[in-house]
Amino acid sequence: MDERPDYDGVEVHVEEGLDTFENFTGLPFYEWLLTIPVSRKTQSTSFTLSPDDYYVTYNYTDTLETVYGIPKDHILHIHGSLRNLTNPKSNSDVHSEIQFGNPNSSGDDVERMLNDKYKDDEDMYFIQNAIPKLASTCEAMSKNLKSNYKTLKLFFKGKGFDEVVVMGHSFLGVDKAYYDDIFVKQFHGLPWSFYWYSKDDLDKIQQAKSVFGLSSVTSIKW
User: Fold this and answer.
1) Which of 18, 117, 194, 222 has the largest CB neighbor count within 10 A?
2) What pTM was estimated for this model as a whole?
3) Is there a contact between 59 and 78 (Cβ–Cβ < 8 Å)?
4) Cα gap 210→222, rounded to integer Å
5) How far apart are CA 168 and CA 204, in angstroms?
6) What's the pLDDT at 125?
7) CB-based contacts of 83: which residues, under 8 Å, 6+ apart?
8) How many Cβ atoms sit within 10 Å of the Cβ of residue 144?
């Protein structure tokens, strides 16, 4: 009987289990995004958007362009746009344009953490081959916010702004770093308006006012 440890077994099981998650952020995710209806029929009648304003959107679809008639050069799809994907053939093609996931799950950080945690563990022999796969999957399901800072600054450069309006964005959530490092620093002295839907939204707006030190804040009901 062969009693040698199955060093490759862990890697195989990890790959089989994680491929599903990694694929979700690739072609299947792209194909699902294509099913989202985007037309003027979906336009909200509760508010209008000015084509003269500038928009940073976290939406991958062309809702602003198609539904609200906003010029393309007035829009920054900070995490990528379906418009820039032409018949992608692989998950990596989609990953090259669409940023999806949590900013706190960098592949490099995960690989470093696992190597540090298990370097002196007797089970390291079993998992060392699986660590790169774990890191790769985490990278596919993460977004590097700092890599977008330069793009944001260039988008804002030379434009005169008189107000900041936040609609349906997790300003205290996973994208908070954008506010800490870019938005608040650049627009701290301007009036800010936050759209809200629930009491929880109102509570978060008050938190944001305190956390970011904003002096002029208006809450607008959707």
Assistant:
1) 194
2) 0.78
3) no
4) 22
5) 12
6) 62
7) 62, 65, 77
8) 14
3-state secondary structure of 93: helix
Cα 33 from Cα 61, distance rounded (Å): 7
- In angstroms, the CA 62 to CA 124 distance is 47
Torsion angles phi and psi, residue 198, rounded to 5:
-130, 170
Quick: pLDDT tens for 3-24: 444 445 555 555 655 666 666 7
Mean of per-residue pLDDT scores for the chain: 83
Q: Assess contact for 51 and 70: CB atoms under 8 A.
A: yes
Facing residues of 56 across strands?
A: 76
pLDDT, tens digit, 9 for 90 and up, residues 146-180: 889 999 999 999 999 999 999 987 788 788 899 99
Q: What is the pLDDT of residue 126?
A: 65
Distance between CA atoms of 40 and 76, rounded to whole angstroms?
20
- Pick left, alpha or beta for residue 44 (phi over 0 → left; psi -120 to 50 → alpha; otherwise beta): beta
How many CA atoms, within 13 angstroms, populate the side-chain half-sphere of residue 209? Answer: 15
C-alpha angle 56/62/67, rounded to 5°? 100
What number of other Cβ atoms are within 10 A of residue 157's Cβ? 7
Q: Which is it for the CA torsion 31, 33, 37, 38, positive or negative?
A: negative
**CA atoms of 162 and 79, how far apart (whole Å):** 25
What is the C-alpha separation between 191 and 57, in angstroms, rounded?
19
